[in-house]
Known about the structure:
Elements: E1 4-13, E2 16-26, E3 31-35, H1 42-49, E4 57-62, E5 65-66, H2 72-78, E6 80-83, H3 95-102, H4 109-122, H5 124-128, H6 139-151, E7 157-161, H7 169-184, E8 188-193, H8 196-202, E9 205-210, E10 213-219, H9 220-225, H10 227-233
Parallel strand pairs: 3-8, 3-9, 6-7, 7-8
Antiparallel strand pairs: 1-2, 1-4, 4-5, 9-10
Bound molecules: adenosine-5'-triphosphate.
Amino acid sequence: MAMLEVKNLAVNYGVINAVKGVSFKINEGEIVSLIGANGAGKTTILKTISGLLKPVSGTVTYEGKEIQKQNAPKIVAAGISQVPEGRHIFPGMTVRENLQMGAFLQNDRTAIAGSFETVYSRFPVLKERINQDAATLSGGEQQMLAMGRALMSRPKLLLLDEPSMGLAPIFINEIFEIVKAIKDQGTTVLLIEQNAKKALSIADRGYVLASGEVKLTGTGEELLANENVQKAYLGG
Length: 236
Ligand code: ATP
């Protein structure tokens, strides 16, 4: 059984059909990447999985249960955590306070302390800046903070929306290395990226979206080698 299965998902904004009958699945332990141009519907799919948007039809099944009607906190509690596009960290709060917000559903102090340790070992730079206002971090550090905050809820499935967006090349490589390491530590990842080349190079499988529909699927390697994908998304 897949960890997450999206079936015939359709999502509208008023009269705009942003997602038109999309189906895909994620197995436990995988990095699955959704790639596609601006407006293809990637962010809409992510927000629907995390409960921020409700579909007009279709299902999202997580660990055997339909979740498309559940609210966002319940979905976080079930083990799905999203890192939104543009990070959305709390700029006037410190690094530590931002991370604390990620543990908002947890009461167990020992577990929270353990989550802090896990995040600090994954992102040593955050530990160095623990009392610094988040607004003073660089773009790459802010992305790490947003990822760290999502990891504070100890997700089984991490949803990443454009983690490399707007980052300097050196940080882009680092972020993709971190995504791989998060997977290696046992967290399943759904990765949305404009940087299709990087995303497919670390993905087990990928889906190519265009105009709200899945056009193509395959392993990361297969999609990287696909002529149409190269022409449309890899600048080849
Ligand atoms: P991007 O990389 O630009 O975020 P995307 O693949 O994530 O692109 P979505 O953001 O999911 O695409 O957008 C899918 C479609 O829905 C687009 O046509 C977009 O203009 C439209 N859309 C997105 N958000 C809204 C909104 N709040 N109201 C109306 N239309 C929207």
